[in-house]
Specification:
The chain is of the alpha+beta class. About 40% of the residues lie in helices and about 25% in strands. The protein folds into two domains: about 110 residues; about 160 residues, Thrombin, subunit H. Strands 1-2-5-4-3-12 form a six-stranded antiparallel beta barrel. A six-stranded antiparallel barrel has the order 6-7-8-11-10-9. A hairpin with a 4-residue loop joins β10 and β11. α1 packs antiparallel against α2.
């Protein structure tokens, strides 16, 4: 902007000078006898005028530069303040989130004193499988292992399906590959949690291996059975929403609404050890 203004000022000076020179030529042609005497006065006037215009132009240029520098300094100062406020906001949000994790951790630990927990945050979703699998910010360097149980304060989320040095994948209870041994806490019926693509869209899963329709009832609480040794016993899974019949496989199954809304989970706990872990594994 400064150089643009200077360009227009110089252009005006050149135009003014051209007009003056043209005036000299016209005057000389009209009054040749008086040209020499008049020229001296005109030259002096023109020189002073030209000097005044140049001086004004440079004065305005210096003022523009000074004003621009002051404006830039103020802008830099404002940007610095904005960045400081943004950093404070990030720090505050992170501290608030850590406090929430700690409070939840204390609640879970109190209910399950024999378990070893590790706090973790969700840092990504798997494209095309956003509900069935997600990524957390802890890995092998933190003590995480394949098949470790993943929970929240509300109940079971899933298990660790892949472990990297600093991150891990969590296969949730909505995945068709879940295969979790569960029990109806009211009727004692044992079944298997196995998700489906259709139910996954609605944050639902299903309990299979139901022999009779009245083996489970709507609103019953479903928990882990602990039979496989992969998951601790009595972890809350969800509530029975409906009983359906599978004509293809000729058996009943229960549609389960998990206590966790999987698509909204931001923080979890990884159970790295518990009493009876792996006792039925090879």
């Amino acid at each position: 902007m400064i150089f643009k203004n200077l360009f227009y000022k110089i252009l005006a000076i050149i135009f003014s000078t051209s007009v003056i020179v043209s005036g000299f030529l016209i005057f000389f042609k009209t009054y040749p006898d008086n040209f020499i005497a008049t020229t001296a006065d005109a030259a002096l006037y023109t020189s002073l005028k030209f000097y005044s215009q140049i001086n004004n132009a440079f004065s305005e240029l210096i003022e523009d530069i000074r004003t621009s520098r002051e404006a830039q300094a103020k802008m830099d100062e404002l940007n610095k303040e904005i960045n400081n406020l943004r950093e404070k906001s990030i720090d505050y949000n992170e501290m608030k989130r850590e406090n929430e994790r700690l409070r939840e951790y204390c609640g879970v630990k109190e209910k399950n004193p024999n378990m070893q927990f590790l706090s973790a945050g969700v840092i990504g979703r798997i494209p095309g499988d956003s509900k069935g699998t997600f990524i957390i910010d802890v890995g092998k360097s933190d003590g995480v292992s394949i098949n470790d149980t993943v929970i929240t304060e509300k109940g079971l989320v899933g298990r660790i399906s892949r472990v990297g040095p600093f991150s891990s994948n969590v296969k949730t209870i909505l995945s068709p590959d879940a295969q979790i041994s569960v029990i109806d806490s009211e009727t004692g019926n044992i079944g298997l949690i196995s998700g489906s693509p259709e139910l996954e869209k609605s944050d639902l899963t299903k309990m299979t291996l139901i022999k009779y329709k009245d083996s489970v009832n709507v609103s019953d609480t479903i928990t882990t059975s602990g039979l496989s040794g992969m998951y601790p016993k009595n972890l809350a899974v969800g509530e029975v929403q409906s009983i359906e019949y599978d004509n293809t496989n000729s058996h009943y199954y229960a549609v389960i609404k998990p206590y966790n809304t999987i698509s909204e989970i931001k923080d979890v706990f990884v159970i790295t050890d518990f009493a009876g872990k792996g006792f039925m594994e090879n």
